[in-house]
Amino acid sequence: MVFATPRIIVALILREIGTSYGRSPGGYIWALAEPVLGIALLTAIFSIGFRMPPLGNNFPIFYATGLLPFLMFVDLSNKVAQAINYSKQLLAYPRVTFVDAILGRFILNFLTQLLVGFIVLSGIIFLFDTRAAINASDIVSALTMIAALSLGVGVFNCFMMSMFQVWQRVYGICTRPLLLLSGVIFLYETIPEPYRSYLWFNPLIHVVGGVRSGFYHNYDVPYVSSAYVYAVAAILGLFGLVLLRRYHRDILER
């Protein structure tokens, strides 16, 4: 019985591979094509109006280090948020818990996003003279922040979206400007006060800054606070878990 939960999580992961990615090659291709097309579009637009990116000398690597962590957060948090709805039929079995469903979706999609990011960034570094100076410790630290934040936000939204259908629309509307407010297409330091201080409270600013510091050795990011990101992730995640534990039976009966 000790190994019941790991076996269930693995089974849920294999199920999602078959349903989300394995039905056709297009599932995996789109996971890679989405960030590639996004980076290409940003590069094409901003290279027309600017001779150099805000940091470094290469547009693709600059926008890749902003867009990839942003897309990773969006994909992971959304997948975790739909974990109960996605596995509702399986949750009728006593041995399958909502925690299994959440962890199964999170682990698979986190590994998928890691692979996508590795392929895209490796391709850019191979094709262009990016002069990137990779700092593995900074990148791992930033990835850990992304994982924690995505899980925390996803767990909270898992309760909200499962309990209140309107929350999915409300959350989508409220987070639509995040691409412009998370440092993907600009540097945090270039924002004038008092708006810079307001943006500091967006945890994605810290995540994107942390990733970029891992590719630009001369980019100092004193504003990045991993403690703040982990605090936001922990508060939302724990609150979501408490609510799911209390109301998950009601959600399954809806």
TrEMBL record:
Its main location: membrane. The chain crosses the membrane at residues 28-49, 61-81, 101-128, 140-164, 170-191, 227-244. GO terms for cellular component: ATP-binding cassette (ABC) transporter complex. It holds the Pfam family ABC2_membrane. Belongs to the ABC-2 integral membrane protein family. Keywords: Capsule biogenesis/degradation, Cell membrane, Membrane, Polysaccharide transport, Sugar transport, Transmembrane, Transmembrane helix, Transport. It is found in: Cell inner membrane; Cell membrane. GO terms for biological process: lipopolysaccharide transport; polysaccharide transport. This is Transport permease protein. PROSITE patterns: ABC_TM2. Residues 26-247 form the ABC transmembrane type-2 domain. One of its GO terms (molecular function) is ABC-type transporter activity. InterPro entries: ABC2_TM, ABC2_TM_bact-type, ABC_2_transport. It is a multi-pass membrane protein.
